[in-house]
Amino acid sequence: MSGFFLSRLAESPWDYVSWVLIIMFSICVHEYAHARMALRCGDDTAARAGHLTLNPLVQMGPQSMLVLALIGIAWGAVPVNPGLLSRSGRAKVAFAGPASNLALSIVAAGLAVVVARLLGDGDGRGAPYLLAKAAQANATLFVLNMLPIPMFDGWSVAESHIPAMESFRLRVGPQLNWILLLLMFLTPLFSFVWFGGDLIAVHALRLWALLLGFGS
């Protein structure tokens, strides 16, 4: 898999670099949103640890950045103290990350439509392409992070409303995480996540085009 992604650097440097930059920026915004919402809800743990920043070295770390460069996927994390948060606060903090990706997707889609209208599509590798790609990537990150898997935000949102899910996560979370991740990335299941992200992005592009009077 790493060879396949890394080969894009030679085959299509623009695709490779644009993907790495989009994912890096999107993860940093995602983690910043967690940290900012935690502070608003009464937990300053992430803020004191320096996570109110878009610096990838802080939000992702060198290891995640290296994996992104090698295989095209990455992660980030901010420290949170659940004891300082109410149940609704925990839900807000968990949802803030995916919500930021959804917002980025919608904004990128709107900019893609406007820029394409003003500048044209060019050779299909210009600013409209980059923005549409950002819209699709962020929509996919939204869908992925909202999956009901213990290590993802979707589980944390649900857990804040269903206390039994917390004890379940503490008992079998680590083992279940690896099983579900392997099933997702080694089977066609991830294609459904990608399809969901693509569906959101395509509809966002079409809706912006309609709202702006650029097409039907």
Number of E-state strands? 0
Class by alpha and beta content: mainly alpha
Shape: globular
Give me the strand/helix succession. Answer: HHHHHHHHHHH
How many structural domains does the protein architecture include? Answer: 2
Average pLDDT, to the nearest integer? Answer: 90
Radius of gyration: 18 Å
State the low-pLDDT regions, or none: none
Largest sheet: number of strands, sense, barrel closure: none
What is the number of helices? 11
Q: Hey, roughly how much beta strand do the residues contain?
A: under 5%
What is the CA-CA span between the terminal residues? 39 Å
Range of helix content = over 70%
Could you describe the 3D structure shown?
The chain has helices at 2-6, 8-11, 13-40, 45-48, 56-59, 62-71, 87-119, 127-145, 153-159, 164-186, 189-211. The chain has 216 residues and is mainly alpha-helical. It has 2 domains: 1-85, no CATH class; 93-216, no CATH class. α3 (13-40) runs antiparallel to α7, α7 (87-119) packs antiparallel against α8 and α7 (87-119) crosses α11 (189-211). The chain is globular, with a radius of gyration of 18 Å. The mean pLDDT is 90.
